[in-house]
Amino acid sequence: MKFHMFAAIYIGSYEVSIKIFEISGKSRMKEVDYIRRRIELGRDAYSKGSIGYELVEALCETLAEFNIIMEGYKVDAYEAYAASVLRDAGNELFILDQIKIRTGLNVRVLSNSEHRFISYKSIAIREEFEKMIQKGAAVLDAGGGGMQITIFSKGDVVTTQHLALGTMRMREQLSKKSSNLEQYEHQIEELVVKELEVFKSIFLGSAKVRYLIIIGDYISEIVRKVEKNYDENTVDTQKFLKYLHRFNKQTLEEIMEELNLVNESDALIVPYMMIFKCMADNIGAEKIWAPGVNISDGIAYDYAEKNNMQKITHDFEADILSAARNLSERYKSYTPHIDALVQMSCLLFDTMKKIHGLGKRERLLLQLSAILHDCGKYISLANGPYCSYEIIMASEIIGLTHLEREIVAYTVLYNTLRLPVYEELADQLNHESYLTIAKLSAILRVSNAMDRSHKQKFKNVRAAIKGKELVITIETLDDIALEKALFNSKTAYFENIFSMKPVIREKRVY
C-alpha cells in the first residue's frame, strides 16, 4: 500500500509545531511524529502590537529546522498555517516575507472562522461527536489568542462565537499586574464568567447542553488525572470541577507537579484551568469530552479531504447553512419568504450552470446570501442592505473563509443597490471575487423579485435555457402584477451580467 507523508505546521501564540502524518487508503491516517518549540510570539503581539526581531529570528530558525525534519521523513506535501498572533501583529507582512526568503515556506495566516473550522474538523470525524451533538453539545476551542464556543442542538449548529479571552492574551494583560497567584486566578475568573453570562443570555436560549467538548492544551492531562486512567477522555462535569477545586490553595509549582508538567516553563496552565473551570461551571453540561486533538490534526484532515484521501461523513455544509439560518432567525427574517428565495435561487443557479461557470461552493454562497439578505431590516427598514452587510461581516459563520463571507455580504448588499464598477472595489476585492458577486447578486435579484410580496404566489416553478432567454415557467392562482413589474425592472442588470434575458411564462391554474 502506498503511503502519503504529510506535515502540518502551525504557528501559534506561544509555540510553533510540526506534526507528521502517514496517510494511506481512504480511511487511515496515522500520526508519526509531533515536535513542538516554545516561541512566545504572543508576548510581543499582545503587549506591543508587533513582534520583535529576536522572536522573528527564533521563528525562522525553527521553521528552517522543520524543513530538515520534512526532508528526513520524505514529506510529500505540507501546509503551514499561522493563528491570530500574526494576524494581530502590525508587522505581519514583513514576518511572512522573512519566512519565505529564509525558509522557502509559504505560511498562510488564518482568519478566526477558518482557524476554528479547521480545529473543528479534527473532532467532527469522530463517531462520538455525531452522537453528542444530537443530544446537545458545546465545543470550546481554547487557544492563546482567544476562544471559540460553538453550540449544537439536535445535530445542528445554533451559533458560534469568538471571545477574545485567549490564555496568552490574558497572561500578558493580567499576570504582571497581579500581586499573587490567587488574585491572578480571580481576575481571570471574573473576566471569563462575565463574558459567559453575556453569551448565555444572548445566544444559548433554550438550547440544552449535555456535553462540553474541549479542544486545547492541558485538558487531556487533567481528564486523565481525574479518571486515573491514561486512556480515558470523558469525565462527569461535577467530578471534573471537584478535582479543579483542589488547586485553589496550591502554588503554580504544585499544580504543574500534580499534572506532570514539571518541564513546562510558564504559567499558561492557570488561564487554561480557569477557562475550563468557568465553562464547566456555567454551561450546564453533564459530561466533558477531551478528544486529545488540536489544530494540527484538523490541518491534516482538511488536506486529506480536499485531496480525496480521507472519507469524511460529517456534513460540514449543513453546519454552515444551519448557522446562517439561526443568524437569520435571530434578526427576525421572514422564514417562508427565505425558504422560497433559497429554492428559487438554487433552481436558477442549477439551470444556468453552463452560463455562469460557477461551482458547488458558489452555490452554497448563493444559498447563504438568500438566507441572510433580509437580516438588516431588523435594525433599519430604510437602510436594510447596509445593515445586512454589517451583520454578516461582524458574524462568525464557521466554515467560511473571510473572503467567502465578504462575497456573501456584498451579494446581499448589491441585491438591491447598484453594483459599482470594478475599479471602485479593486482595493477590496480581486477580479474573480468581483465577478462572482456580480453573478450571484444578479441571480438573487431576479429570484427575490419573484416573491416581492412575500406571499409565495408561484407553484411548480421550472426554468430552462432557450436561445438567449432564461425562461421561467410558473403556475399560479394569484394576481402577480407586482411580481411582473418588479421582475421586469431587474432584467437589465441580469442581461448585462449574463447576456441573457430572463422571462416569465405564466400558466394559470384553475
* Strand adjacency order, main sheet: 8-7-6-9-11-10
Structural class: alpha/beta
The second-level CATH architecture of the largest domain is Orthogonal Bundle
Shape summary: globular
Instruction: Please tell me the total number of domains.
Output: 3
Count the helices. How many? 22
Sheet-strand content, in percent, reads 15-25%
Please outline the helices and strands:
Blueprint: E1 4-11, E2 15-24, E3 28-38, H1 41-45, H2 53-72, E4 77-82, H3 84-87, H4 92-103, E5 107-109, H5 112-124, H6 127-135, E6 137-142, E7 147-153, E8 156-163, H7 167-174, H8 181-204, E9 211-215, H9 219-227, E10 234-236, H10 237-245, H11 252-258, H12 269-282, E11 287-289, H13 295-306, H14 316-330, H15 335-351, H16 353-356, H17 360-372, H18 384-394, H19 402-413, H20 422-425, H21 431-449, E12 459-466, E13 469-476, H22 481-498, E14 501-508
Question: Can you describe what's shown?
Answer:
- With 510 residues, the chain is an alpha/beta fold.
- 51% of the residues lie in helices and 18% in strands.
- The strands form three sheets. The chain has a six-stranded mixed β-sheet, sandwiched between helices. Strands 3-2-1-4-5 form a five-stranded mixed β-sheet, sandwiched between helices. A three-stranded mixed β-sheet has the order 12-13-14, with helices on one face.
- The model has no long low-confidence stretch (mean pLDDT 88).
